[in-house]
Amino acid sequence: MADLFHELLNPPGSAGPRSGDKANTDPVALEYLSALASMPLAQLDGSEQQSLAQSSHSLLLSLQSLSKRSHKVIISSAANHAHLRTSLPILAASTGDLTAAIPKLDNEAVHFSTTYNKSGDNEILNARKRALLLSRNVERLVDVLDLPTLLSTAISTGSSAPAANYASALDLNGHIRRLHGLYADSPLVTSVSVQADEAMQAMAKNLIMGLRAPGLKLASALRAVSWLRRVVPDLDSTGAAGNGGGLGALFLVCRLSTLINMLAALEPLRELAEQESFRQQQNPTGSAWSGGQQTERYLKRYIEIFREQSFAIISMFRSIFPAPANETSSTTGEYEDPLHPIPSAISTFPFHLVEMLLETLRTYLPTVKDQPSRDSLLTQVLYCAGSLGRLGGDFGILLATIDVGQEAEDEWVEVVKRHRLMAGRLESIVGGQR
């Protein structure tokens, strides 16, 4: 019945949906038409019209209320719905582009993972690894780079507290040498080692200058030599108990240089002695003033300095470089080299010192004409010879080679006799006290 009412209300020629199209039939309309078909005619003519009017009014109020509450949302939804007409094609085109780019992106990702693989050999990755390694060890590198500065500071301040600072410098140098041995291929460690070698050369120069100090004491000399053994080990190849080697020769050269400088400070007196000798040659008779007073002053001061320094040099050398215990033992067949072992530098050093003194005496002693002055000088020379004689360097016998003139030879003999007599008495007195 409801279908009949629906076809009646929607004839086939109308603009509405076709009557035979079940898919386009409104189920609500069919339900309402079924309800109408089941109602009596009186109800359809009376109450149904009022019910429809009430429903229509209620729906109108609901629509008005809905429009008041949600008109902004509805307007926005309508605007967005209209915008979808342009956004959806754009989205579709972008989706197509993304779909086309995905294979290229995948290829690039594969190429990146293949190129920058950790197990592969890549220069960029190696550079980054080195940079990261440098960043992690920057503090250690700074400490290594500060080693030459610390070493130079310890050496430069060694004059104030040499024992502590030079010991620290040697420890730092030993640490740098160990680093260079462990990392010999590292340019940084090699550069630090080169700077350390330069600093140690400066330290060796300071120590050598210390050995040339006029007022050098035995304790200071022992420390300086012990440091030089560590700074320049090649100079002392025979060791501390040997004959001194190159280090002993260096010590003698430094002390000899100091002695020569101290004697050179007597240059004003030497010039006066030269002038006095020249005046004697010009005027052999001479006056009392040209009898050798200036020459006597020069020789007395010269012999005094020579006696003090020569005794100090030789005694200090023997204390620093003691002779080996088996030095006097037979060495037949012990060494293949006939020139081995090399004798100590001290074995010929006293001869050089004595020759310096005798040359000066030969030059200036004939100028002294006064007998008491000559006796005083000869006595002073004999004391100097006795002083060196305590160390095995007595040169008293060599004084006979000095030519002081025929008239002064007897005086020399008497002075030598008096000196020997006095020396014998002193020895007897000292022996009796012991």
Keywords:
single chain; mainly alpha; 15 helices; 72% helix
Explain this structure.
By secondary structure, the chain is an all-alpha fold. Helix content is 72%, strand content 0%. It has helices at residues 2-9, 27-38, 41-45, 47-115, 123-136, 138-156, 162-182, 187-211, 218-231, 245-264, 267-282, 293-320, 349-364, 371-389, 409-433. The longest helix has 69 residues, at 47-115. The radius of gyration is 60 Å and the shape is rod-shaped. The model is unreliable at 328-333 (pLDDT under 50).
The overall strand count is: 0
Q: How many angstroms does the end-to-end distance come to? A: 164 Å
Radius of gyration: 60 Å
Q: Estimate the mean pLDDT confidence.
A: 79
Strand content: under 5%
Strand and helix map with partners:
Layout: H1 2-9, H2 27-38, H3 41-45, H4 47-115, H5 123-136, H6 138-156, H7 162-182, H8 187-211, H9 218-231, H10 245-264, H11 267-282, H12 293-320, H13 349-364, H14 371-389, H15 409-433
Helix pairs in contact: 1-2, 6-7, 6-8, 7-8, 7-9, 8-9, 10-12, 11-12, 12-13, 12-14, 14-15
In short:
The protein has 434 residues and is mostly helical. Helices cover 72% and strands 0% of the residues.
